[in-house]
Amino acid sequence: MRIALALEYSGTPFTGWQSQRDGGSAQDALEHALGAIAGMAVRSVAAGRTDSGVHAALQVVHFDARVTRPMTAWVRGVNAHLPAAMAVLWARPVPDDFHARFAATARHYTYWLLNRPVRPALFGGRLGWYHRPLDVEAMRTSARALLGTHDFSAFRAAQCQARTPIKTLHRVDILREGELVRFNFSADAFLHHMIRNMVGSLLHVGAGKAPPEWLGDVLLGRDRTRAAATFAPDGLYLTGVDYPVVFGLPCTRREVEFSWPEDDAP
Question: How many whole angstroms separate alpha carbon 50 and alpha carbon 186?
């Protein structure tokens, strides 16, 4: 039986999603817990291979169970064997043609940034940070060039294994909420480090280091060296994955919200 799971996890203690020799990845932690319930080795496939330090409000995974267990065992039972930084939210049986990665039609990410002179401590590792004032309107103007179907080689990590750099970016929202800046991204798929590289370049514009039209020129140039440096993973969250309704999955999107204390709070 093929089973789909929804997970949430903090990326801070993991070396990323992908399995590692030292066993320190999120995939390693999940497969260890699944194996404890199945009584045998289990391999899993995720919708998105999040980087080290990147969090997931809702990651979708599938695995093939060669033993029969109630769905509650794949939730509460697995959670009993997971580290505190990860939890299964739900489990559902799915058809054999379901594939967490290849059946997905869109991925959604949010980047939360603290924009103030002093770095975060209370939410260290949970928020990105930029110390200089940012022009959010300039970043919004700049981001329009990214929408649509493009070759995103300018924002692609050298070690990216994607077959093509051509992706379709459906959504880029940039919102300011006091000292917090929220970036929302939706696309059919993302390249390795693509979001962190786009955020870094948007901040380059927001800090006044380049005009808004610079980002479009970088995109068209397809040269990674012309874009800004890869930004920190701390504030990046996978917030959901879309699938055809035929698979009958529960809700596969989950937003991350921050409530920031007011400066004059007691």
Answer: 15
